[in-house]
Amino acid sequence: MNNDPRQTLADAPMSVMQIIAVAITICLNALDGFDVMAISFASPGIASEWGIDRAALGFVLSAELAGMAVGSLLLGSLADRIGRRPTVLGCVTVMAIGMYMASTAHDVYTLSLWRVFTGLGIGGVLAAINAVAAEYSNAKNRNLSVSLMSVGYPLGAVLGGLVATELLKSGDWRPVFHFGAVVTAAFLPIIWFFVPESVSWLATKQPAGALERINASLKRMGHAAITALPVIEQDASGRKTSSETIFSPAMIRTTLLVAAAYFCHITTFYYIIKWVPKIVVDMGFSPSAAGGVLVWANVGGAIGGAVVGFLASRLNLRLVTVAVLVGSTIMVNVFGHGYSDLTTLSIVCACAGFFTNGAINGLYAIFAQVFPSHMRASGTGFAIGVGRGGSVLAPIIAGLLFNAGISLTMVSLMLSFGAVIAAGIIMMLVMPKQGEVKY
What we know:
Growth Hormone, Chain: A; 439 residues; 77% helix; 15 helices; 2 domains; mainly alpha
């Protein structure tokens, strides 16, 4: 009898319970997309009601990104220490509270504080659910599951934009955050009942009661119980290898490479996401038309994520990711040439979204492959946390370049370099051999 449940899950077809768990991670990632679009749509109402200028509004828009960076860095490691389930439940609770409390704010400072608080929860969730999606999947569908989890962001952004548009018709921006708080809180019982602790984490960390909890999960998935916990390998000093960290000599090169690749590409990605509306308006189109173009960019992103996930489950993950990174550079440059008709512009932005978000999905799948389970959330959290620095820098860099009189074509060229640099970094990465599974 195989006494390693991680191998059992890696080899067997995915059960309904596993599919549901992965689907829940997609929905949780969608909350990130919804929240980003919600604050963007609510910002005009906030500025008008409080009479604040663009500089103050920019501070509000950046507050959540800063919180997400800190949350990813700090709470990702927490998920490796105490488990995926309690971390996700705790972070979702923080998100729900933060979204509701944002609606009670009456000044920039209070609103920014609650946006940072919300960002902490989102950052922690993003790091943990990447691990959940990988560990609830079998080996055959792992890349697909992680990529589909990432598709949640553009889906949430599209739905967030549609819902926010309807809610804002009342003239008040607060219902947007009320809606976000209710939807987020509704996921707490769903997570509680349908996402037990990761079997891979339990088998690796082996906390008290691990055997019983593993067998309970295996039973729900339709697998036979194990009679004893698997033996954790030890290094030459007798120390369990699960005590390794993402900065150990064996892992630090991998950690720094994936973080650098994510940082570089996220700069390209957020240039498109944050600047498309303003650029489209400057081309002479209405703000509503600009919002529609951004929606198409996110629709393209959702399709790109799904396609990359499908390809990554059947082809070489590294080559697929590098290909879409190169495609990102090309399409951002195509966007930079500007277009006079809205249809062409929407198609170009959809294609840019296809490649830029597809590349992010490929990077998430790489995180799940190169980090073993006992440091998977920590490694993902570090990469996302560092990458969020790129998300903050991209709009600022683009704004400074535009203010200096540099053309759209040249700005797009310069910001597109992030994706192709990321492609070069990924080619330097040592990936697991085909068929090798890092528990």
